[in-house]
Structures are given as C-alpha cells and as structure tokens.
Amino acid sequence: MTSAILPTYTRYPLAFESGEGAWLTSTTGEKYLDFGGGIAVSSLGYTHPHLVEALNRQAQKIWHTSNLFQIPQGEAFASRLTAATFADFAFFTNSGAEALELTIKMARKWNYVNGAPERFRILTFEGAFHGRTLATIAAGGNAKYLEGFGPRVDGFDQVPFGDIDAARAAIGPATGAILVEPVQGEGGIRVGSNPFIRGLREICDDKKLLLIFDEVQCGMGRTGKLFAYELYGVAPDILATAKGIGGGFPLGAVLCSAEAGKGMVAGTHGTTYGGNPLAMACGAAVLDILLAPGFFDEVARKGLVLRQSLAALAASHASVIAEIRGEGLMQGLRLRVPNGEFAAAARAEKLIVIPAADNVVRILPPLIVGDEEIREGARRLEAACRHFEIASPEKLQGAGG
C-alpha cells in the first residue's frame, strides 16, 4: 500500500497502539521495553495517571483560545519554571526547533537594542543539532541537512565541540552569542566537560556575549537535574527546552534572564498554538512529578544503576561496544558495529534504542523506569550484542572502532 505521507522518514516496520510505564505494546500485541522514550520525549513513560488526569480535566474545559487573551495556566506554569531556574521570563512554543528560532532572534535583538546590530553572528559547535528550520540547520552545520535547501542562512560560525581555545579564537567583532548543547544528543551523547562549559560562560562574560543553552534533549530531568546547566555550576542567559517538558504533548519553551529578553517587546515574536491551556496543563503535570521531593535524586541514582549495567556489558562485549557516554538517564553506547544494525538487533529482542551520530545508540528510558527494568534492558542489550558475536568477522569490523 502506497503511503500518502511525504516520504521524509525511513520508518521501521513496527507500530504501537498502547503503552504503560516504560513498556509499549505493538499493533500485533508484542510488548517492547522502551529505552528510547520517543527520543527523550516520554519523560513520564506511558499513561502516567497524573498526566492523563491533567489532560482529561483540561480537555473538558478549554483546549485553545489564543495569545490575544490572558491564559492563566500559562502564567502559572511560567512562574513555576522561572522560580525553579535562573530565568526571569518564559515563552512557550510547540517544538524545540521553534524554541531555538526564538533564541536566535532574541540574541540578535539584544545586540541590536544595545547599539550593536553588526553583532548578529552566533558561535556554534560541530556535532550540534538544533532543529530542522532553515536557521537551525545552518546553526547545526550538518552538510547532510543543509544540502539542497539553497544558500545557507548566514550568521553562524562553527568550531569543534569541547575546544575552548578554538571557541575563544573564533570570537570576532560580529559575534553576539554562543549557542551550545551541554550534552549533545543527536551528535552522539557527547558530554561537555566542566572546563569547557565554564569556559564558555567566562568568554561570554568577558566579551559581553549571550550564552545560549540548547537543552531540548538533555533538559527536564534527563541528566538528574531539572536542567543540565546545574551540573556545571553556571547558568546561561537563554535556554531552549522541549521534548520531555510535555511528556509527549507537543510543547517547548524558552527561558531567559530579564537582560537577555529586554529586546523582545510586544509584536517582536508570537505563536498561534504555543502556551495554550491544554499544553500548559500537560507541562504543569510533568513539572509536578519532576519537582516532587527526591525525584531528581532518584533519576541520578537510576542513572548510576544504568551506567553500571552498561559498564558490565561493555566489559563483557568489547568486540561490540567501544565506549559508554552520558549523564543520568541519557546514556550512549559507541559501537564497533553499525549502530543501525545494532538498533535492529535490539528491536529483535523487544527493546527500543535510538541511533545517533558517531556510531552511537542512545539509551533514553523514561525517567520513571524501575531498577528491574534497567536490568532487563541490559539483558536485552546483551542479547543484541550476541547477534554480532556469532556473526562473521566482516560484520564485526563493519563500523570500525
């Protein structure tokens, strides 16, 4: 049967009809352990009772008005987010790409209102992924995503991720901001070091630049903190988040200091759906769970359980696993076999993992995953490793290492 959907995805021959906790049930009735979380989206797993109740309660009232009117649910959610973070203001979007677009506009406008319109360039980093819009693919700099879409949007300069000296050397008179993922997701679960992230803050303070964190994938509890910037002891001026913030409902947000947001006055930006009552109910419900006493401590503890399980796996299967990377419940395996084939082998064991760059598979279970589910996931990953160890030597050498 020919699909009427624009063929921009290479989809696996698998569909799901229901889920509970960390488990998904396929349309053929098979149960899968989800260590992908919809690419870090399903932060509370599936059919979490508090999220379902909040969605249903709001759905009986009003889904959408518009931002022409007051939205009390958005005011309350923004107040909670800013109280829990560095930020003074929040702006709600429908996606991570939209949130990143706003961070770019905000940085340019900040320099403009400060009398430096020539400072429109933003320093970014190799391996980054910031979205699929024309501006965000230019910011990411991946040639594969840029090809065929005309002239690259100007205003972005890239240097190697983790190289603070290269970052410092790349700052010029037209540079107005630095944009970085503290933990690169699509780039292969590459964790920024403390000296690197702190060094970027120092550069911005010294050069009077804005520091922008893309925490679309690594934010909302994924690393054992509400946001990954807390791991480094420094705060950005602007932060974009999405994915896990809505627990599966389309939602993103930009958080900023009053100084960084001072150019964004009435009429400078807008959205039709962003921050509507239904989205705000879902976001608030997720935040209820995340901010409950001890929740982040539990995520960090479970992250250690996962990391230890993966370390044991790597020690036993060094011919398949080259390296473990990550923080909290955002872990990655860099492989010596093709990552797409490994993900397929994991699916054969009824386990979902997500391929990324640098021949990595991402391990992104829901934040509510249990210890025994983590151990079960490790057992299924071990079975996936055995798929390759019984294969030919040529197969094992397919991805290098």
Plain-language structure description:
- Helix content is 36%, strand content 18%.
- It is α/β, with parallel strands linked by helices.
- It has two domains: 16-34 and 294-396, Aspartate Aminotransferase, domain 1, CATH 3.90.1150.10; 49-290, Aspartate Aminotransferase, domain 2 (3-Layer(aba) Sandwich), CATH 3.40.640.
- The strands form four sheets. It has a seven-stranded mixed sheet with strand order 4-12-11-10-7-5-6, with helices on both faces. Strands 1-2-3-15 form a four-stranded mixed sheet.
- A hairpin with a 5-residue loop joins strand 8 (183-184) and strand 9.
- Helix 3 runs parallel beside helix 9.
- The two termini are 40 Å apart.
